C-alpha cells in the first residue's frame, strides 16, 4: 500500500558553485541505451526511531545530496542543436520521485515491485533518479533506487548513494570528493593521443555505422530466464587452483590469472555449452555459426587507470566503463576440461591487460571523441555473445551505506525480471567472501545451464526467494 508519493527537490543549503545549464553527454555515456541501474538495500528495523522519522531523514538527506550532485537532479534530453545532454537549469531540475509503501507481509526476499520503476528503457525526459522505500510488517526496510544509466555508471551511482547516506548519518561532508567540474571530458585525465593513433581502426568491441542505429541489436531484446548461483570463498579458491596454468611458461605471455578471470571463464563456458545443447539460434548482434570464436564483453571502471590517480574518489561523475572484449575459442568454451577453461581465463586476462592500459584507454577516448565517429551521435555500437558485469570490488552492504541505524544486511541489483540473455552480474558479500551471480540464458538453454557439470562443481543454484 502506498502511503506517500512526492517529488524531492534539491536544497540550497550548501551553496556550491552553480552548475552549468547543461553538460553534453560523452559517447561513453551513450553506448548504453536509456536503461537503468537498480540497487535495492535491505535494513533491519530502525530501533528507537519512528517510521515517519526514518522517512523524513531519508527525504531531507536526499534533497541535500541532490544539491551537491546536480546531474542526478537534472534531465537527460537533447539541446537545440540536437545534442544529447543533461540539462541542469531551473526548468529541467525535476527532482526525484519518492514513494513510501507499507507491506502487510514480512520480508521474504527481493522482488520487482520493490523497484521505483521497472521500464526496460526509460521514456524520454524521465527523472534521472527514482526512489521507493518499503517497510515490511516485520520492520525490515527496503530502499530501492534506480538511476538513468546515461547519467551515471555503477561507480558514480554508488558515490551518490554513499553521499546520501553520509548526510543522513549527520557526518561532515568531504567536499574534496565532489567534482568541481561536471563536464564529461574524461580525456583530461589521460595522455594526449598522437595524431597517427587516430587513424587506427575502431578499438574492440566497437564499430562505427554509416548512420545512427535505429535501436538495440536483436540479441539484446530476446526473452531470457534468470538464474542465480552462489560461490563460496572456498569453491572460488578451488576453481582458481584448478584452472590456473600448471606451467605458466606454456603460455606465451606466462600470465597469472585472478579469481575473477577464473570465474568469468567458468560462466562463459557454461553459457556457451547450454546454448549449444539447446540449439539457440544466433540472432543479430552475435557471432555467426561459422566463426570459431565467441565475443565476450565486460564493463570495467577505468577511473583507477588514470596515470596520475586523479580521476577516482568522486572526481569524475558520469560513465567511464571503457568496455573491453575477449575473442575466445568456441571449442575451448564448449569443453568441460580445466585445461580449456585455463586457456579461456588466460585469454580474458590478456585482453584485460592490453585493453585497460592507460594508453589503450586514451586511444579509446580519442576514438569516441573523433567527430568522424560521433557525428551524428549514435553511430558507435558494440555487440557481444556474452556480457559480464563484475560488481565484486564494490562493498554494496558496507558502512558507507548506513543511513544512521545500521548498514544494510543485503544489497541486490534489483528484482528486475527482464535482462538480455547471456548477461551476468557478479557481486560479493565482503563479510563472508561469498560471490552471488545472476546469470541469464535463453529459455531453450535453461535446462542445459542448470545441469552444466563444471558450473555445478563449483556453484550452488540459488532457489531461495530473491
UniProtKB/TrEMBL annotation:
Q: Which GO molecular function terms does the record list?
A: acyltransferase activity, transferring groups other than amino-acyl groups
Keyword annotations for this protein, in alphabetical order, are: Transferase
What InterPro entries does the entry give?
Answer: CAT-like_dom_sf, Plant_Fungal_Acyltransferase
**A Pfam family in this protein?**
Transferase
**Transcription regulation as a keyword?**
no
Q: Quote the PANTHER family the UniProt record gives.
A: FATTY ALCOHOL:CAFFEOYL-COA ACYLTRANSFERASE, TRICHOTHECENE 3-O-ACETYLTRANSFERASE
Record's protein name: Transferase
Organism, as annotated: Mortierella alpina (Oleaginous fungus)
